[in-house]
Structures are given as structure tokens and as C-alpha cells.
Amino acid sequence: MNQNVKITRQQAEEEAKMLEKVFDVVRFLEGDFFEQMQDDPRIGVKIGMCQCYDFWKKNKPCENCTSMKAYAEKKQKTKLEFLDADVFLVISRYLEIDDEACVMELVKHLENDTLIDTDGRDKLVGKLKGYQDKLYIDPVTGVYNRRYFEDEIRNMQNSAGVAMIDLDDFKLYNDIYGHDMGDQVLCIVADVIKNCIRKIDKLIRYGGDEFLLILSDMVRGTLRGKLLQIQEAIENATIPNCSRLKLTASIGGVISEDGQIDEAIAKADQLMYKAKDHKAQVITECDKTIFKKEKIQNKPKILIVDNSEFNRAILKEILEETYEIIEADGGNEALHKIDEYGMKISLVLLDIIMPEKDGFDVLKYMEEERLISDIPVIIISSEDSANYIRRAYEMGVSDYINRPFDANIVYQRVSNTVKLYAKQRRLMAMVTRV
């Protein structure tokens, strides 16, 4: 092929005739065309000037027009164009024909059996794999990313185990140790999970600290055991330069048998959030009864202290579905319950006016035993004088609710306080763990 940039019109036509014996298409794109395309790329679509459309039968501009690049850079450009199952070699040569800039475009349909030799095929496959890795691999953890799920997993029809794995308190890791440590934790967890699964299984970083696990051909009876193995491996993982950090994960799992992968993921996600309510749990659709027992055992304990049985009954009715209720009919019994349960108590609901030892006596005892900073107290009392309220807050109570009260407001304020102190306890355990 003549490599001269400057040729005459006659030379160009002679060369084109010669090249037509080799290439399926030989054509010249004049400079005026490219100048117009550069001024307004839509012109080629509006008036049909882009000859690419006629040949490729496309209804949109070329994403990688080598002829445009050849004209702009004044050099030769080459690419492979894929049209359905066919592959075409496209060569675009910049030329100056009679001092007028243009591009000679050559197109060759490549037969499958002569497309490329073995060595070239290996190199091409390697390069394409590199592009695929960049497209589908999460840069932090090295596992598959959400785009891989959307392109390759969402439409899968095979039976599989589907699990959502979420790290407990991951935000705390970032807040305490920084995002670099958070990324290190994600990498370690990803490696731990990969060591527990087969090559045919797929681990996907679904978002943030959530991992989606697809276990190919997993049978219902073995799903829970596999997920428990993964959870235990995560808990046994060690973080370099941070031996105090202990990882736990909450996991939900189901079996997808009818190809409805989105529905299976939604169910696994729901079970994961149920497990997350109690931390470090594995819940599958096969063991809901087991979960109910665990849920009862893991309900946060609330101590209700009031000498009125009626008042205790009202509070118990509001809270007992979510919390395990412990009752004390006065200050003396409250002190015994506090000694008995200690830090197992998540919250104390305390009346002020009681015979013998009143609410302030209970607060004083908790202060002396250094419990008031770890066990939150909410006062619920009909006594609303500013002096009582100020004294209660000075002694460390978290909230003060006057009677009569709205049941929904009581529930929400109790729930908020329990969650806040539970997070505080986990935070303190994390930073003080040896």
C-alpha cells in the first residue's frame, strides 16, 4: 500500500482499483465532510452525509470513528468493527490528493477461520480480558462490582443460593480508624469470603459494605451451614496493625430456583436486615423458627420502675412486642434488679414519686456504681415541676416524659435512646478491646 501522504487524483484512483481486489470497500471521504462534521456533528445524521451509516446500517454516530481521527491527527488509524457476529477490519488513511485533505477508508470482512493466528488470538483475548476486568472488577476489593451484576447476573436462570452479607457497624470503623482502614477491612472480608467459596460461585460488592454472594447449584439443606462457615471466618479474621478490631457480619440467604434472581435478592436482603437488628446473625428462609427463638432471647431488656401496677401495665403494653420487660414495684426492688441484671439492662424507665426509696435514690445508687453513663434512664412522671426536671437531668437522666403521654411518642423516644446507647456500647467495646 502506498504510504505517501501527498498524491495526485490519478494516483489515488489507480491505488483504489488495486486495493478493491483486497478490500470489500474502498472509498474517499473528502475534507469538506470532516469540516462540516466538526462544526456540527449532527449534520451527518440529519442529511445522511456520513457514509458509515450506509455501510454499517447503524442509526447513530460511530462511537470510535477512525476516519475522523485520521483526518484530525493527519495519520493512519485502524480498528476492528463488530457487526452482529461479523468482524471487519477498518483502515483509515489520511491523504492529500492534489493538495486537498481527505481520508481513504478501507473495509475488509474478516473470515472466522482466517481472523487471527494463535499467538495473536491469545494477545487479543488478554487485552479484552483486561478491559473486562476494568469494567467489572471493584477497584477496592478485587471482587465483581455492581455493573457485573447488572450485565451478567440479573438475567441468570440457574438455581442458586443467594446471600446478602453486611458488615456490622462498618460506619464506626471508618469514623474511628479512617477510610483507609475501612477499605482494608473490605479487602480482608472479600478475601475471607472467597476462601470459603468455589470458583464457580460469584462474590459481588453490591454497595458500600454489602456483598452479594451467588452460590451456584446450592441445595436448600446446605445453605445455612455454608453461610455460618462464612460468618465464623469473618469473625476470626485479623486486621493487621489493629488487633483490637473484631469483625462481625449479618447474613440473609435464600434459594433461587425459578430464575427470579431479583426476587431472591430482595428476600435475602430482608432477612439480612432482620439479622442485623440483633447483630452477627445468619438467617435463611429455611430457619425462620430458629430466628424467632433467637429474637426472643436477644430482645433488649427494659426495667420499668413504678409503684403503680397500672402504670407498669400501660408501659409494658406499649413496649413488650419489641423489648423484654423487667418490672420493679419500687425503689428497693429496682436496686435488686439492677444488681441482678447489670449491663444486660438496655434502659430504665423510672418514676420519681415512690414510697421508701424514690426515683432520685435509684439515680444516686446508679451514679455511685458508675452505671448511669452506661445504662440510660428515662423519667416518666406526673411531677412536672422545673426543680424536679432540672435535678433529674443534673443526675444524668437521658430524657424526661410527663404524664399523661402519647404512647407512640413514648415508644419512639425509648427506641431512639436504646439504639443510641447500644451504638455507644459497641463503640466503647471496639476501642477498648485488647
Automatic annotation (TrEMBL):
InterPro entries: CheY-like_superfamily, Diguanylate_Cyclase, GGDEF_dom, Nucleotide_cyclase, Rev_trsase/Diguanyl_cyclase, Sig_transdc_resp-reg_receiver. The modification 4-aspartylphosphate is found at D351. Residues 301-418 form the Response regulatory domain. It holds the Pfam family Response_reg. It comes from the Bacteria. Gene3D superfamilies: 3.30.70.270, 3.40.50.2300. Signal peptide: none annotated. Residues 158-288 form the GGDEF domain. May play the central regulatory role in sporulation. It may be an element of the effector pathway responsible for the activation of sporulation genes in response to nutritional stress. Spo0A may act in concert with spo0H (a sigma factor) to control the expression of some genes that are critical to the sporulation process. PANTHER family: DIGUANYLATE CYCLASE DGCM-RELATED, REGULATORY COMPONENTS OF SENSORY TRANSDUCTION SYSTEM. This is Stage 0 sporulation protein A homolog. It comes from Anaerostipes hadrus. The lineage of its organism: Bacteria, Bacillati, Bacillota, Clostridia, Lachnospirales.
